[in-house]
Amino acid sequence: MEVITNTKRKYYLSKGIDGFFFKIAAIARFVGNYFAQLLKPPYEFSEIVRQCYKIGCNSLPLISLTGFIIGIVFTKQSRPSLSDFGATSWLPSLIGIAVVKALAPLVTALICAGKVGSGIGAELGAMKVTEQIEAMDVSASNPYRYLVFTRVTACVFMVPMLMLFTSLVALMGSYLNVSANEHISIATFIANAFDKVSFLDLNASLIKSVVFGFTIGMVACYNGFTTTRGTEGVGNAANAAVVTSMYLIFIEELMIVQIMGWFR
Amino acid sequence: METGQEIAIDIKGLHKSFGNNHVLRGVNLEVAKGENVVVLGRSGTGKSVLIKIVCGLLTQDEGSVIVLGEDVKNLNKERLEQLRLKVGFSFQLSALYDSMTVKENIAFPLKRNFKHLSKIEIDKRVDAVLDSVSLMKTKNQYPAELSGGQKKRIGIARTLVLRPEIMLYDEPTAGLDPISSIEINNLIHNIKEEFGVSAIIITHDLVCAKTTGDRLLMMFDGVVQKEGSFEEVFNSDDKRIKSFYDYNFT
């Protein structure tokens, strides 16, 4: 009896390990295919532009509100600590560093993971379960190129743009709070805010956003493309797209900060 | 099938399993050029799996599938795409792209595969196939605004626009009212007459089988049980075939 149980256990363990490596290989192929498509122009420019519009413009209201509130709240909560040391004049620099180097890329990526990632996951998932992706496949229309390449490319372009916009809006929110407490012109505020932000910092944030955009697009498309089990599967795909993207964004944030530290 | 006819699809000893579920257990089938073959059988007997293997959406475990002289399993991606331009697939649920209008749905495979075609030429070909399925008036509608029968016809039109040599129909009349079913059956018949395409029609609707098929195959448990004309198949003494007939007609 024990022998049978052990054999069964070994069977399920080996099946689980096999499944894990098959999945890793499938993901690697899926991601690798993006770079293969990148080397094969002409690209679907009209579809990429349409996706950029969907991802960028449709995210603006949420991004603006979040950025603006972050700017106000962060300034408001930092003021008492700085005023204890008589250092409120450092507030714009502090906000500049916090927003450009850390908050804007991370917050923008998390919002996009929720809004854009779930949308792409659900859209492609629904197409998968209603055989629309298979229909593209059998008409030799390369669904990967039309659906995945365009969406991932749009994410890669738009997440950095949205990050810059979030930074700007957060600084505006911060200026509103600072100017309510002391007399400072917007030009001086901006100059002070960017005083301690180097070109490398800005580049690092842009690189982070490109990586986050790629991750959001790829994770959402992979989950959508591999959807099974009908409408329940579509919900799961949307959910997995958001949760997995968020995990990966935090891991990537840690890694990129570490790598950028070596260049300083 | 008459001897000496040119073969469009040649399937030999086809096996396919999903885990422990052995769906196809040695299917043999030949389809001549210009012939409509109907594959009948209960749900779950592997009919849809069969045509998905024919167009390379699934891969067989054993056996060979030769389509227009090409071994589907051993084709590389480019050759498979070339072959797929000659093989139309009509899905059970139509699989229309719901974010596109009818016109955009039909133009989509043309735009993707024939980049040299001008907008005017694409419009002409879209109008021609819409006319052949008598649905010109739906040109600017979205799939959500169409009836089940209209969706099926647009799905067929989308495959016809590529001028295929072979059509694969997966349950063309499933879920349709009798009038719409007759329209689809007539359309399948007209496509054969007008375009001379070969076809495999997967169905469990005997009216569809009788009106569209030159030859019938009856499948049970992943094997072909009986093959011949409608009369030959249903004059059989096999209990399962008789019960299939009785369920449809009595």
3D structure, described in words:
The complex is a heterodimer of chains A (264) and B (250). Chain A has 264 residues and is an all-alpha fold. Chain A folds into 2 domains: 1-40; 45-263, no CATH class. In chain A, 86% of the residues lie in helices and 0% in strands. Chain A is built from 9 helices and no strands. Chain A has helices at 2-38, 45-56, 60-84, 91-129, 132-138, 143-181, 186-193, 199-225, 230-263. In chain A, helix 4 (91-129) runs parallel beside helix 8. Chain A is elongated, with a radius of gyration of 23 Å. Chain B has 250 residues and is α/β, with parallel strands linked by helices. Chain B has a single domain (7-249), classed as P-loop containing nucleotide triphosphate hydrolases (Rossmann fold). Chain B is built from 9 helices and 10 strands. Chain B has helices at 47-54, 77-84, 102-113, 119-132, 148-160, 178-195, 206-212, 230-234, 239-249, and strands at residues 7-18, 21-32, 36-41, 62-67, 70-71, 87-90, 166-170, 198-203, 215-220, 223-228. In chain B, the strands form 2 sheets. Chain B has a 6-stranded mixed sheet with strand order 6-7-8-3-9-10, with helices on both faces. Chain B has a 4-stranded antiparallel sheet with strand order 2-1-4-5, covered by helices on one side. The longest helix of chain B has 18 residues, at 178-195. Chain B is globular, with a radius of gyration of 18 Å. The chains are: A mainly alpha (264), B alpha/beta (250). Chains A and B meet through helix 5 of A and helix 2 and helix 3 of B.
Please supply descriptive tags for the structure shown above:
heterodimer, A: 264 residues, mainly alpha, 2 domains, B: 250 residues, alpha/beta, Rossmann fold, 9 helices, 26% strand
Task: Give a short synopsis of this structure.
The complex is a heterodimer of chains A (264) and B (250). Chain A contains nine helices and no strands.
